[in-house]
């Protein structure tokens, strides 16, 4: 989907002090925490519930649970990234959403293999930008049921 | 490309034309000589051809063109359509439908159409041979009002109207040129009023060898004949003067035919309508849903503030929004005929394949249902109809042997009652042997022997829909019924429908489906479960009650209560939805119970408290959260939060 010279715009968010990124075209909006309704018997354990996103019932995944990082309680910084997946719109809970950066495809490096666990497929690669290390999320993999 | 703008229109209209051809071909099969019906089919094929060519779907254009030729033979020659002919044309219609489906899915509709072209071609050549036999006669023209006026006036002015049938030599190479020359020489003698095939087709050589024209002239027949025979490669000329009597004799049946056309297409009243994209309707619906939520909020605020003027305004608003709701829902309603009219084709095919004689009767096709439901019921209905034909109706010989008419009847009917629409599929076939059914279910270990003894008749028939039962191959000989019927039941239940069966051995069976009018707005009882709120559809609720702890009894590890003379099981929703066993941890003296019903089974659902009766907009949880146990959807309640709607059907077993 990206050509060699393509510029990527990446939304940067934070999970447990680490920075992650999602392609901005996949992000519909960034919401402050909204009231969630638990869904009993939901198909995956990381589904935090459903929210009312301007009249649309939208499922919300706690990305922290999904990626296996620690999930502190929601606070004023907690955000829901509303992303567009193949099967509809889904919210992703993150600790905070910070920034928007430009990168080129050439800057993307492969994930260090030491990282290879069950979440390996969830990432596209890492980007070193100035002093920051940004892990790029493979949204479709994360959203696959 | 600009054509993508038209693609959706092309697909929609294409499908309409396919449906139209199917309907009229079926009609035509019953009355093979009715010209207006042929013309109706022809028009659809012709329009499709034009559309396909414009959109550059070459195969589709070629195929529809071939179909057009067959219909043209039917229309112009006096060939009677044969059953084989219908089979071929129906096949072609099927292919056209496949092509349109392919285009709808982003393909270009290309397909190997050669076998179909060959089939269709043989049909037109049959037409040719028949023509030779009927060649001596003039072809009947029908004249519209305008043409008749022209003919009448020409007679008044001393012209003689003729019908001239010209047959070109079979070996003619440039047919169009001959036509041109014929028209040319005739031009010196008078004027051509009408041609069949139409002039454009003649110019494009879209005809075999014969064409007919209506011609007014002051010349005599012999003169005209002589002139025409001077044109080379004209094999024969037949000229007949149309007398006044002649015109009217032809005019009168034409009038009747026009009426015919109207009655079978049902287009008598012309209503002014516009087509609206479904997405726009959905958008309107969504906006309206939010409005309803806000209305609820406003109502509550008005109630709290106790301000007279505000309360009155809110009340008026509520009334208007109720009307508005009715209007919007109405816009989403479609007659079931949109689904029903695909069935005659299917029934024709299935009964042919099985060698059975079947009459399909359709009733109440104007009954309206929400579009979202209409979209879903097609496949399960096909299944039920197939089932009736396949396993219900006996072979003609068997029917005769037991003194029945050799033609079986399958009736599909729809009607309205209260807030529901009922659809029935009934047949006058062999019926279902319920005892055999029970025996098979026992062999399949679907029910235990003791259980089998207590079953009511309705419950015995319900066995057909149990999932283990239906998939098992070897039981298909219980008149085969049951195969895949669990899927049918599930589909209808997911739409909030209820399916039941009744049968009388030897006389036939009836499958009835009760469906809600709409899925979008339902009435629920909101209930409290600790700090969570759930909605239970009112339609499933029989009664609500507060029961005392002492009313609860235990049988076989199951808590039950006595309710109106029945012992019904209690279900603590805490267990189901929160995974907590509240019965042990806390013991309240009283419990709020909602008695729900599914078919003839009851259950009592225990909750912490009732909040109240609300009209809510049912929304889906989306693709991501499909098939969540006991949850059928969600809704936004007054304070903007989401409440889940409980699917009581899943809870009552």
TrEMBL record, chain B:
Catalytic activity line of the entry: ATP + protein L-histidine = ADP + protein N-phospho-L-histidine
Gene3D superfamilies: Histidine kinase CheA-like, homodimeric domain (1.10.287.560), Histidine kinase CheA-like, P2 response regulator-binding domain (3.30.70.1110), Histidine kinase-like ATPase, C-terminal domain (3.30.565.10), HPT domain (1.20.120.160), SH3 Domains (2.30.30.40)
Cellular-component GO terms for this entry: cytoplasm
Pfam families: CheW (PF01584), H-kinase_dim (PF02895), HATPase_c (PF02518), Hpt (PF01627), P2 (PF07194)
UniProt record, GO biological process: chemotaxis
Residues in CheW-like domain copies: 521-653
Molecular-function annotations in GO: ATP binding; phosphorelay sensor kinase activity
Limits of the Histidine kinase domain: 269-519
Keywords per UniProt: ATP-binding, Chemotaxis, Kinase, Nucleotide-binding, Phosphoprotein, Transferase, Two-component regulatory system
Keyword Magnesium found: no
Source superkingdom: Bacteria
Residues modified to Phosphohistidine: 46
E.C. numbers: 2.7.13.3
Domain HPt: 1-103
Coiled coil region boundaries: none
Biased composition (Polar residues): 252-264
PROSITE patterns, per database record: CHEW (PS50851), HIS_KIN (PS50109), HPT (PS50894)
Record region (Disordered): 249-269
PANTHER family: CHEMOTAXIS PROTEIN CHEA, SENSOR HISTIDINE KINASE CHEA
Annotated protein name in UniProt: Chemotaxis protein CheA
């Amino acid at each position: 989907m990206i050509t060699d010279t393509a510029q990527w715009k990446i939304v940067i968010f934070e999970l447990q002090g680490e920075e992650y990124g999602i392609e901005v075209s996949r992000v519909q909006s960034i919401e402050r925490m909204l009231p969630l309704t638990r869904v009993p018997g939901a198909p995956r354990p990381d589904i935090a519930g459903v929210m009312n996103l301007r009249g649309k019932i939208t499922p919300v995944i706690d990305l922290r649970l999904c990626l296996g990082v620690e999930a502190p309680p929601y606070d004023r910084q907690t955000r829901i990234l509303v992303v567009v997946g193949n099967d509809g719109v889904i919210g992703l809970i993150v600790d905070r959403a910070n920034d928007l950066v430009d990168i080129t495809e050439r800057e993307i490096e492969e994930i260090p293999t030491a990282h290879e666990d069950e979440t390996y497929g969830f990432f596209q690669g890492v980007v070193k930008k100035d002093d920051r290390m940004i892990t790029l999320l493979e949204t479709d993999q994360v959203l696959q049921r | 490309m600009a054509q993508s703008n038209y693609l959706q229109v092309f697909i929609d209209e294409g499908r309409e034309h396919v449906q139209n051809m199917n309907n009229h071909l079926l009609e035509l099969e019953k009355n093979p000589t009715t010209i207006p019906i042929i013309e109706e089919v022809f028009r659809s094929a012709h329009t499709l051809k034009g559309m396909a060519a414009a959109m550059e779907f070459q195969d589709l254009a070629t195929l529809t063109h071939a179909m057009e030729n067959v219909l043209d033979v039917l229309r112009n020659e006096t060939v009677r359509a044969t059953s084989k002919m219908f089979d071929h044309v129906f096949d072609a219609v099927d292919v056209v439908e496949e092509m349109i489906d392919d285009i709808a899915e982003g393909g270009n509709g290309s397909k190997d159409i050669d076998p179909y072209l060959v089939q269709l071609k043989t049909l037109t050549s049959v037409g040719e041979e028949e023509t030779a036999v009927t060649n001596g006669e003039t072809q009947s023209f029908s004249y519209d009002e305008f043409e008749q006026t022209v003919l009448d006036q020409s007679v008044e002015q001393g012209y003689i109207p003729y019908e001239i049938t010209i047959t070109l030599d079979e070996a003619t190479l440039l047919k169009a040129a001959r036509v041109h020359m014929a028209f040319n020489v005739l031009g010196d003698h008078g004027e051509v009023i009408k041609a069949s095939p139409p002039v454009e087709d003649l110019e494009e050589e879209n005809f075999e060898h014969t064409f007919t024209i209506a011609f007014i002239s002051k010349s005599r027949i012999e003169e005209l004949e002589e002139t025409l025979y001077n044109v080379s490669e004209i094999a024969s000329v037949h000229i007949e003067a149309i007398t006044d009597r002649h015109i009217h004799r032809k005019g009168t049946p034409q009038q009747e035919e026009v009426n015919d056309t109207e009655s079978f297409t049902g287009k008598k009243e012309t209503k002014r309508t516009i087509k609206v994209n479904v997405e726009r309707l959905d958008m309107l619906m969504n906006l309206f849903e939010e409005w309803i939520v806000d209305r609820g909020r406003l109502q509550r605020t008005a109630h709290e503030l106790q301000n007279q003027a505000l309360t009155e305004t809110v009340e008026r608003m509520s009334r208007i929004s109720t009307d508005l709701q009715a209007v919007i829902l109405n816009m989403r309603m479609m007659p079931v005929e949109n689904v029903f009219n695909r069935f005659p084709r299917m029934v024709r095919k299935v009964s042919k394949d099985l060698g059975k004689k079947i009459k399909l009767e359709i009733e109440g096709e104007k009954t309206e249902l929400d579009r979202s439901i209409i979209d879903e019921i097609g496949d399960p209905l096909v299944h039920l109809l197939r089932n009736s034909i396949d396993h219900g109706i006996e072979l003609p010989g068997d029917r005769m042997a037991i003194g029945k008419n050799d033609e079986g009847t399958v009736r599909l009917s729809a009607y309205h009652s209260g807030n529901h629409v009922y659809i029935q599929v009934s047949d006058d076939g062999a019926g279902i042997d319920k005892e055999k059914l029970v025996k098979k279910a026992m062999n399949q270990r679907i029910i235990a022997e003791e259980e089998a003894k207590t079953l009511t008749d309705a419950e015995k028939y319900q066995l057909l829909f149990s999932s283990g039962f239906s998939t098992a191959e070897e039981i298909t000989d219980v008149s085969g019924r049951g195969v895949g019927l669990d899927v049918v039941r599930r589909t209808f239940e997911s739409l909030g429908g209820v399916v039941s069966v009744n049968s009388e051995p030897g006389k036939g069976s009836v499958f009835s489906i009760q469906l809600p009018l709409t899925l979008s707005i339902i009435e629920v009882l909101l209930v409290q479960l600790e700090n969570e709120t759930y909605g239970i559809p009112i339609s499933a609720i029989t009664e609500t009650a507060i029961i005392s702890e002492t009313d609860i009894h235990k049988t076989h590890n199951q808590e039950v209560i006595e309710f109106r003379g029945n012992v019904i099981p209690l279900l603590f929703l805490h267990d189901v939805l929160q995974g907590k066993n509240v019965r042990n941890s806390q013991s309240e003296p009283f419990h709020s119970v909602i008695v729900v019903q599914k078919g003839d089974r009851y259950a009592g659902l225990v909750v912490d408290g009732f909040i109240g009766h609300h009209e809510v907009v049912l929304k889906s949880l989306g693709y991501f959260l499909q098939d969540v146990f006991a949850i059928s959807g969600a809704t936004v309640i007054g304070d903007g939060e989401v409440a889940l709607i409980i699917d009581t059907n899943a809870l009552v077993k």
